[in-house]
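User: Could you go from structure to sequence for me? I need the amino acid at each position, not a summary. Structure tokens:
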């Protein structure tokens, strides 16, 4: 069993508290992605799991064993770094076999593990090459092969794709997902890229300044962010945030964005938002939920007019930047439906997807 349990984990470097008391329960064979901006404590957390960094306080369990004092080589985990140092003078086969030889496995066992990993990774015909005869993506695969042959209890990845160019990164992302589908193991994967997190993870852990903001499945994280930070970090282009006031509108409630624009809140949210009536709040809406006017508006969808400031064609859609009382909002329109810059455009907002944030706590209410 390779469940990984992290209990009130902390790490202090002199005057920086890099990790400030995190709890995490990673299930056997689960693919968990730690994501957050640079410096938020992702690598430090991973390195403590690997045993490369001593913990300041708290507890780490791998399987049923507390590993705080277990040296890295005895933790039975494999780590794949951004800088995958392959031995340049060894062939691909030897690079993959090396660790197993050190552990004195017999020759036939080594051979069968290397062949199996090579077939999973599609590098069977590269086994006799040396690293300098490989492309970046192929080297990355060999680095993963070296980890796979060890058959560890868990894989730890620290930004393994950040040295690759954009196209290869997307390909390797799919490869890693395929590999996890074939070789079921526990994976803890660190990245600063929210798209990588969304596409790979069973569960995403969003970190910010040494703490965990939220743990959830990708879809749940996207639909129900718990904090303003998560709401803004997950999704591209980012969620729009506009100051607003919650007001009563007839028997229901509305979100007042400006003197002209007051949008009704769907009935199923009124009891949730009623405590915030007459308070200054932050209205959050993703660009894809503000679109060109829809011919048949459904429940919770409302139209409003806005002046177009900037257009950014993306091919499939065009991003339309408008301003409401001097504050920018990004909408997403079908390319054919946009009006010229400087003219008014009629937009539809889907209030079923609104988020309301309390600016005093930065929590989504
Ligand atoms: N060895 C170290 N000595 C001092 N400070 C460190 C050390 N390693 C990391 N830090 C600090 O700890 C914080 C978290 O770093 P890190 O875990 O590398 O972040 P991330 O991987 O999320 O970018 C940063 O402020 C970083 O400067
Ligand atoms: Mg890092």
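Assistant: Here is the amino acid at each position, in order:
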């Amino acid at each position: 069993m390779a469940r990984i349990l992290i209990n009130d984990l902390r790490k202090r470097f002199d005057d920086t508290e890099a990790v400030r008391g995190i709890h995490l329960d990673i299930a056997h064979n689960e693919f968990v992605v730690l994501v957050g901006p640079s410096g938020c404590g992702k690598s430090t957390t991973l390195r403590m799991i690997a045993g490369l960094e001593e913990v300041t306080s708290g507890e780490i369990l791998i399987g049923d064993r507390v590993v705080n004092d277990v040296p890295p080589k005895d933790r039975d985990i494999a780590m794949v770094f951004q800088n995958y140092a392959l031995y340049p003078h060894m062939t691909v086969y030897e690079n993959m076999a090396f660790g197993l030889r050190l552990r004195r496995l017999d020759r036939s066992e080594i051979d069968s593990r290397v062949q199996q990993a090579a077939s999973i990774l599609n590098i069977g015909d590269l086994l006799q090459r040396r690293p300098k005869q490989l492309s970046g993506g192929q080297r990355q695969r060999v680095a993963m092969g070296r980890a796979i042959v060890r058959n560890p209890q868990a894989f730890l990845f620290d930004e393994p794709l950040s040295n690759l160019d954009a196209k290869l990164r997307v390909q390797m992302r799919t490869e890693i997902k395929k590999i996890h589908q074939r070789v079921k193991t526990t994976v803890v994967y660190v990245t600063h890229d929210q798209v990588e997190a969304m596409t790979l993870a069973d569960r995403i852990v969003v970190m910010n300044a040494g703490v965990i903001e939220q743990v959830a499945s990708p879809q749940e994280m996207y639909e129900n962010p718990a904090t303003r930070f998560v709401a803004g970090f997950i999704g591209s282009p980012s969620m729009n945030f506009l100051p607003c006031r919650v007001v009563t509108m007839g028997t229901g409630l509305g979100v007042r964005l400006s003197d002209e624009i007051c949008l009704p809140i769907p009935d199923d949210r009124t009891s949730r938002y009623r405590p915030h009536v007459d308070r200054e709040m932050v209205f959050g809406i993703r660009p894809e939920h503000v679109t060109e006017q829809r011919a048949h508006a459904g429940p919770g969808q409302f139209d409003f007019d806005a002046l177009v400031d900037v257009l950014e064609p993306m091919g499939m859609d065009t991003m339309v930047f408008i301003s409401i009382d001097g504050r920018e909002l990004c909408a997403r329109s079908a390319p054919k439906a946009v009006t010229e810059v400087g003219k008014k455009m009629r937009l539809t907002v889907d209030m079923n997807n609104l988020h309301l944030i309390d600016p005093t706590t930065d929590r989504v209410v």
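One structural detail worth keeping in mind: The pocket of adenosine-5'-diphosphate (ligand 1) is lined by residues 13, 16, 18, 36, 38-44 (CB under 6 Å).
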